[in-house]
Amino acid sequence: MTETWRRLPRTSPEAAGIDRTGITQLVDALGPLGAHSLLVLRHGNVVAEQVWAPHTFERPHQMYSVSKTFTAMAVGLAVAEGLLTVEDRVVDLLPDAAPDVVSDHLAAMRVKHLLTMASGHAGDLMSVVDEPGTGDDWPRALLAADVPMEPGSRFVYNTGATYLLSAILHRLTEQRLLDYLTPRVLAPIGIRGATWEQDPRGIDMGGFGLSITTEDMAAFGQLLLQRGRWGSAQLIPAAWVDEATAVHVDNSPQGWGPEASAGYGYQMWRCTSGAVRADGAHGQFIVLWPEHDVVVAITSGAPQMHDELTAVWTCLGPALGPSDPETLPDGDAVGGGPAALAMPSGTAWEAVGDKVDGRTFRLDADAFLPGAPPEVPPVRTVTVRRDGDVVLLDAGPMQGRAAYGAWGDEQGEELGLPSASTYAWTAERTLEVRLAGLGTPFVWTVRLTFTEDDTVEVAIDQNVAFGPTELVRATAR
């Protein structure tokens, strides 16, 4: 396997003043929480790396709201280039999208309020784009939303605010956010192949939609830890990085727990440990720990994502000793060895499998997957077939060539993304197939119970979601 993704220098934990027991403990703690990958840097050198199959370091992973921090840095670049200031009014920067009647609160909304999630809105604006009749002019739709509070008065987490920052940059720079960032920041630190989801008019989503590799995350984190400096080049103004990582607003009223209540900067969260982080749904993290000159990059599908941060503080923190960053030798970073996402436990085959092998069972009614894109078809039928050492699952969008006791090879995009799958008979009449969406947080579990009256009880669940994780409960016959 080629390792072109490895571009950051490596050294041993001991050379960087780290007790490797702490790294082993961190890897052991993150696995059961749903981690997909981990990189730990100290003094700019990778000292720990771990990946959980079927995920790989080479494949870009969805960042979710880690994207917001990239948007904030782009705003800082635009400020440095004289395109705007944080005191500029939003309606002045998006004049074509402003409503005919501008409320006092909307008129008072400034760039700094979008950066700090204190825009005056009562909730996340992105729900507006799902309303009937919104059309494809999303900036206009968002600026038409009610602003019930004085901007700057209260923290309300709002991905729509970040989208508006992207829309502002799109208008001022006359290019998409990704294209603006690439020559200024991404390319100089080695990020290649990044993608960013866009709205119907080609504006990058800003608050989510970025996909990059774990090594890309670590490089970006190291850039911020170095206050925007990379080698001899100052890519982002140091003063902007300082401003972005400082506390600007009290985020504790949101009531999301200690790690979401330690203060908020410019699209970055302060941590209980004194660190600061870029934070994405389901456990995507870039943690900057300046006190220890440490960066931690994590991708995950974690139902309790803040437990991963606790693991970093409690496992890695005590292992960090003194070291001299000027005398680090090249060496091998440490990991926990081969590891994989959780797989079902059971047998490779049961007698009932012979009776249902190749049969097609039809659901009593079409079962649509909640939250799936409209192009994803419903589950109408279920077929299981044995093919040598693998089990083939055909359940509409749930298509798996599943291996026993391991994650199978990458397969097609029936779910809109590549996946890998594994299976086991967890009981005499129950077959469980798990499908992992590669480069995403998601694992889908398809549980088929073949009853004595020749029906199949179909259960489909998802490990993490913004809505229900119980997707399908149906009978097929």
Overview of this structure, please?
- This is Class C beta-lactamase-related serine hydrolase.
- Pfam families: Beta-lactamase.
- InterPro entries: Beta-lactam-related, Beta-lactam/transpept-like, Diverse_Enzym_Activities.
- GO terms for molecular function: hydrolase activity.
- Keywords: Hydrolase.
- The protein is of the alpha+beta class and 477 residues long.
- It has two domains: 314 residues, 3-Layer(aba) Sandwich (Beta-lactamase), CATH 3.40.710; 126 residues, Calycin beta-barrel core domain (Lipocalin).
- It is 23% helix and 24% strand.
- The protein is built from twelve helices and 20 strands.
- The protein has a nine-stranded mixed β-sheet with strand order 12-13-14-15-16-17-18-19-20. The chain has a six-stranded antiparallel β-sheet with strand order 2-1-11-10-9-8, sandwiched between helices. A three-stranded antiparallel β-sheet has the order 3-5-4.
- Helix 1 runs antiparallel to helix 11 and helix 2 packs parallel to helix 7.
- The longest helix is centred in the N-terminal third of the chain and has 15 residues.
- It is globular and about 70 Å long.
- The relative contact order is 0.14.
- The model has no long low-confidence stretch (mean pLDDT 96).
Short characterization:
With 477 residues, the chain is an alpha+beta fold. The protein has helices at residues 20-33, 66-80, 90-93, 104-108, 111-115, 138-143, 159-173, 177-186, 214-225, 238-245, 306-316, 351-356, and strands at 35-42, 45-51, 61-62, 195-196, 210-212, 229-230, 233-234, 269-270, 276-280, 284-289, 294-300, 360-367, 379-387, 390-395, 398-404, 419-427, 430-437, 443-450, 456-462, 470-476. A nine-stranded mixed beta sheet has the order 12-13-14-15-16-17-18-19-20. Strands 2-1-11-10-9-8 form a six-stranded antiparallel beta sheet, sandwiched between helices. Strands 3-5-4 form a three-stranded antiparallel beta sheet.
